[in-house]
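hey can u check if this looks right to u? its 170 residues, i copy pasted from the old doc so theres a chance i mangled smth
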Amino acid sequence: MPESNPHSPSETGSPAAGPSGADDQNQRYWFHILAQNTPAARNLHAAKLVDKAWQQGDRVCIVCDSARHAEELDDLLWNFSPDAFIPHSVVPDSATACSDPVGILLCPPVAEDWDTVIILSATLPADADRFKRLALVAHNDPAVLDQARSHYKQLRALGIEPRVHDQRKR
């Protein structure tokens, strides 16, 4: 697997992280806080993260809360690039396996199945500290930011100090 990070500046504006390990654990956990205040901006940012990680050979999943949101992400990933597509499938429950390199999950991810997990859901998986890489994306909306604060506190309770990339400060 390449050493470069799927959260590098070329697509996301985040500082690059080194390979995974105990010394750089916080480099595996990212919060992306967008300046925009729309769910569409959040979905597009997540799609950019997916594309970058997938291009680097990662198995990537996006975790969302509703079938409607999964459908929006599904449409976005099919149409993300005019000359290519991101191979993916929607995973409605934990009994459904995902054979594609990218999954849109309506259930908690299994850490061993994914290299990069992108959280767009209201619930942070209980075993979030077991993921190789985790990115949480929040758009600039009070309810979503409250959710992100809750996720941040949960990660800190697990002993993780995530890196925050706040685009509102540009």
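The chain has three helices and seven strands.
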